[in-house]
Structure formats: structure tokens, C-alpha cells
Automatic annotation (TrEMBL):
<dbReference type="Pfam" id="PF00534">
    <property type="entry name" value="Glycos_transf_1"/>
</dbReference>
<protein>
    <recommendedName>
        <fullName>Glycosyl transferase family 1 domain-containing protein</fullName>
    </recommendedName>
</protein>
<dbReference type="GO" id="GO:0016757">
    <property type="term" value="F:glycosyltransferase activity"/>
</dbReference>
<dbReference type="InterPro" id="IPR001296">
    <property type="entry name" value="Glyco_trans_1"/>
</dbReference>
<feature type="domain" description="Glycosyl transferase family 1">
    <location>
        <begin position="203"/>
        <end position="357"/>
    </location>
</feature>
Length: 383
């Protein structure tokens, strides 16, 4: 088969970027499919994660950043002009490549993808839960006309998803979100690594991974850490990421007087080593799709503490067996849970070992088996 992935740009140290590249690499290297990744705004930037030489990356060079920093009217004119160009270029490439399957991550191309007559099977693959796709929830929190625009885009998204041949989501909870629109298949992302030996869980170090933005909730983690630090000043937490909220978070760290124990670190490609050198993983997100960092930490034998946010943590963590779930947004409970694991070394070690065992269900082979079954079903049942 010829398979095409559509994505904005492969240039961030993010879960979606890595997941798409790893699946494309597996399909090309292990299953010997012809695989292409088409981006719209790479703009010459290198991919953060390695792409197999068997996978061809094509960038069609649409500078969607041009629309930003203008008023709503000017931005709208820019957007529709760029979208016409995007449709024209993508239509050219799909008719040239003649793919059997095209996979969209529900990006901009969703607006017109099913209208292109290239003959391919069209699959939507959502990396974020339905309420938070394309950051529409942020527009819905603003005043008129942004609320109306968000409602319009949600309706357009649902109408476009109905026309897809299949929709793939990461969790059962998100599949329930789509049930009124389209029946969704549940295929999680797979683990990028499964180290043989896990963390000792003896280092006085806690880790978290993610972008410095509203979603990841690091303002809540800083508040909780202020309470932990007063009881355990010899423990240190490190966050690895980047994002627009970095300066604001650094100010909050100063406000809580935890500069000596709370560090904002740049992204690292050698994240496995950081997990293995840590004893607890903490996730403070307001929402997720399927949090890869939880899977990775557990694969490294690190017990996880997470807010029970929508969506994902409750489907990954078995409470009090391989990690701890606390009520979403309750920073007192989060601080108490961190202190409990700090103070109980035996429990930490036991949870870490169980986490490494339980997470095997997200192995590469198990997950790609589900994708292969979906591809075969769609190609054999389509007229």
C-alpha cells in the first residue's frame, strides 16, 4: 500500500510529532509499505525526531503564520487565501502519489479532504480529545464573536468527520465524545522505548515533561510543590519543555520561593536517561489526549502521580498499584500524594516495578497490529 500522513510541521519535541514519525517508520521499515509524510509549514526546519530513509517527507510550504498578529477581518482574508493554496497543492500531491490511504490528524485539511477525488481511503487520527481540538475551547471562553466562530468550526469539524472512512482516537472516553458524530476506533500510541532495567526510584528527583502552556497545568504543580518543598526541601523537581508560558511560570516559582528545588529545563532528546534518573513522575495537566509521558515514565519503572483529568490518565494508571490519581485541580491532594511517595521508599519501588510490567500493553507490536487490522478491513470492504 501507499500511505500518506498529513501534518502541520515536524519540528517540536512533542508526542504527536514523535508518534506520527514512529508509525511511519514502522510501516515503511517493518511492513514494507510506501509511506509519505506531507507537511504544510515545515519552512526548512529539520525534524526533531529521526525519519527513516524509507519514508519520504514532502513539505508544500504554506506559511500559515502570516495570518497571525492581524485583526479578525484581515486574518480571515489571509486564512482563506492560504487555504485555497493549500487545497490546490495538496490535491496535486495526492493525485501524483495515488495513495491507498491518507491519514489526517484533523488539521486544517479536514475542511476539504473528503472533497478531493484522488481515490484514497481517508482516515482521521485525533491526538487530542474532541473538546480541545484546534484549541477551540480557548475561543469558546472569549467574548463574541469568538464564541460564534468556535461553534461554527466545531460544526464544520463534525460534518467533515462524518464523511471520513474511519476515525481513530486514543481512549475510550474520547470515543464516547464522538459517538453522536461517528463511531470511533480506539488505537493508542505505542511506547517509543521499553528499557530492560527500570529506575532504582532512590534518587531524590521528580520529573515532568510537556510544553509550558495552559494545558499542562504547571501553575498548579508549582502551587503544590510549594507545600511539598516545605516538608522535603532535599527533593528536586525538573520540568523538561518549552513554550510561551515559560516566563510566567518562572515568576510563579519565584513567588513561591522554590527556585532552589524547582527547575524549568529545555527539551532533551535523551529523555529516557532523565526518566531512569528520577523516582517519581508528576502530571498536572488540565486535559490530555493520551499522555505519552505517563507511558514513557512507567516503561522506565517510574511510578506516576497525576490529576484525574480528561482524558487518558485513568485509562493508564491503576490507582495505588502502579501510580496515584488525584482529583483534577486539587493541589492539596497532589501535594499529599507526592509526599506519600517521597516518604515511602518501598512503595515507590514496588509501584515502579509494577508500572513497568503493566505498561507492556502499549508495545509497538501490539499497537501496530491494530493499525494493520484497520487498514486491511478498510481496503477489503471498500467497493
Amino acid at each position: 500500500m501507499t500511505i500518506v500522513y498529513l501534518y502541520t510541521a515536524l519540528c517540536t519535541v512533542g508526542g504527536a510529532d514523535r508518534s506520527i514519525i514512529q508509525k511511519a517508520n514502522y510501516l515503511a521499515d517493518e511492513m514494507h509499505q510506501d509511506v509519505f509524510i506531507i507537511t504544510d509549514s515545515q519552512k526548512g526546519r529539520p525534524s526533531v525526531f529521526p525519519i527513516s530513509p524509507r519514508v519520504r517527507h514532502i513539505d508544500i510550504a504554506i506559511d500559515f503564520d502570516r495570518q497571525y498578529h492581524h485583526n479578525l477581518l484581515v486574518r480571515g482574508c489571509y486564512y482563506f487565501t492560504l487555504m485555497r493554496l493549500y487545497r490546490k497543492k495538496l490535491n496535486y500531491w495526492l493525485k501524483t502519489l495515488k495513495p491507498d490511504i491518507v491519514i489526517s490528524t484533523l488539521g486544517r485539511e479536514l475542511d476539504f479532504l473528503t472533497q478531493l477525488d484522488d481515490g484514497s481511503i481517508k482516515i482521521g487520527e485525533s491526538h487530542i480529545a474532541k473538546p480541545y481540538t484546534r484549541n477551540l475551547h480557548l475561543m469558546e471562553q472569549r467574548e463574541f464573536p469568538y464564541k460564534q466562530i468556535a461553534r461554527h468550526w466545531r460544526k464544520k469539524q463534525e460534518e467533515a468527520v462524518k464523511k471520513l472512512d474511519a476515525l481513530v482516537v486514543l481512549t475510550q472516553n474520547d470515543a464516547d465524545n464522538w459517538k453522536e458524530v461517528k463511531k470511533a476506533c480506539i488505537i493508542p500510541n505505542f511506547l517509543p522505548f521499553l528499557p530492560e532495567n527500570g529506575s532504582s526510584c532512590l534518587e531524590k528527583r521528580i520529573i515532568s515533561i510537556g510544553r509550558y502552556n495552559e494545558q499542562k497545568g504547571y501553575d498548579r504543580l508549582i502551587e503544590a510543590w510549594g507545600k511539598v518543598n516545605r516538608k522535603h526541601p532535599d527533593w528536586h523537581i525538573r520540568i523538561y519543555g518549552e513554550g510561551q508560558d515559560r516566563d510566567r511560570l518562572q515568576e510563579l516559582i519565584g513567588k513561591h520561593h522554590i527556585e532552589n528545588s524547582f527547575s524549568l529545563c529545555p527539551p532533551t532528546k535523551n529523555i529516557q536517561e532523565k526518566y531512569l534518573g528520577s523516582s517519581i513522575y508528576v502530571m498536572s495537566s488540565r486535559f490530555e489526549g493520551l499522555p505519552m509521558a505517563l507511558l514513557e515514565a512507567m516503561a522506565c519503572g517510574v511510578p506516576c502521580i497525576s490529576f484525574d483529568c480528561p482524558y487518558g490518565p485513568a485509562e493508564i494508571i491503576t490507582p495505588e498499584e502502579d501510580g496515584i490519581l488525584v482529583r483534577n485541580g486539587n493541589t492539596d491532594e497532589l501535594a499529599d500524594a507526592i509526599c506519600r511517595l517521597i516518604e515511602d521508599t518501598d512503595k515507590r519501588i514496588r509501584m515502579g516495578k509494577q508500572a513497568q510490567k503493566n505498561i507492556q500493553r502499549y508495545s509497538r507490536e501490539e499497537v501496530m497490529k491494530l493499525w494493520n487490522e484497520l487498514f486491511n478491513t478498510l481496503t477489503t470492504t471498500r467497493p
